[in-house]
Write a structure and sequence with these properties.
alpha/beta, 9-stranded parallel β-sheet
């Protein structure tokens, strides 16, 4: 399954562009989750939510819809990642299991200044829980320092079955290694000057790359941390999010990409 979406659903500039102008704010999630197949919950990076909120989000979205959840900054923005155990437990215990089958991958974003320390990063990966209330969990990491373009980083991710977020970004490293049973992309170079954020040829290119990943293939033309190691040739779920500066056209880009991969 290839699911393409946006970051969050509350964004005033989407009114009259993505959302109908007369749509009530309380109905935005319901509308967005029927126009897209996934949404990245970004508010969890800054604060926690009560179980009632998670249940409300579950109940407002249709069957088959999937959320991904951004890990807490209090977990990732620390000098020693190996000491993040208590923070991870607190984050995982806030009630997200209420999403049930609508809980998708959890992705952990690291600061651009965070450098790759194999021992410490490996200890962090070992802390990530494999299940939550009996449900298997999937994790992805978004790293933004060039030092992670290292075969040892990809090897650690493969060992822990953790995905590396493939970032389409102007300055962050492009790391396209497929290290887990799913792929996670964040497309961040779009422009609000284009109705679909990306030009048609670029949408075609990204759609083809996602289709290749879903088939179990490695797309050509992307940089890897470990070019010498090929990913396992097995089908995988793909989650992709359009999150560019301004992001007014992000929903249109996500819908255009979804239409391409769905054929």
């Amino acid at each position: 399954m290839i699911r393409i979406g946006i970051g969050g659903w509350t964004f005033e500039p989407w009114r009259g562009v993505f959302y109908p102008a007369d749509l009530k704010q309380k109905d935005e999630l319901s509308f967005a989750s029927r126009a897209l197949k996934t949404i990245e919950i970004n508010g969890t990076y800054y604060s926690s939510f009560k179980p009632d909120s998670w249940r409300k989000w579950r109940d407002e979205t249709p069957d088959g819809f999937v959320f991904t959840v951004k890990g807490s900054r209090f977990t990732t923005n620390r000098r020693v990642l190996a000491e993040a155990g208590e923070s991870i437990e607190r984050f995982m215990g806030q009630g997200m299991s209420e999403l049930g089958d609508k809980l998708g991958p959890i992705f952990w974003q690291f600061a651009p200044t965070k450098k790759f320390d194999p021992q410490d990063f490996g200890a962090f990966l070992a802390l990530l829980p494999k299940t939550l209330d009996g449900k298997p969990l999937r994790h992805a990491v978004e790293v933004r320092h060039d030092s992670f373009s290292d075969p040892a980083f990809a090897a650690l991710l493969r060992a822990h079955d953790v995905a590396c977020v493939l970032a389409d970004h102007a300055t962050y490293p492009e790391i396209a290694d497929l290290t887990a049973g799913f792929a996670y992309l964040r497309l961040q170079t779009g422009s609000d000057d284009i109705d679909t954020a990306y030009k048609a040829k670029d949408l075609d290119l990204w759609a083809a790359r996602m289709a290749a990943m879903a088939r179990g293939e490695e797309p050509e033309g992307l940089s890897k941390a470990d070019p010498a190691t090929k990913a396992k040739a097995s089908p995988r779920d793909v989650f992709a999010f359009v999150i560019h500066e301004g992001k007014v056209r992000a929903p249109a880009a996500a819908q255009a990409l979804q239409a391409r991969v769905d054929g």
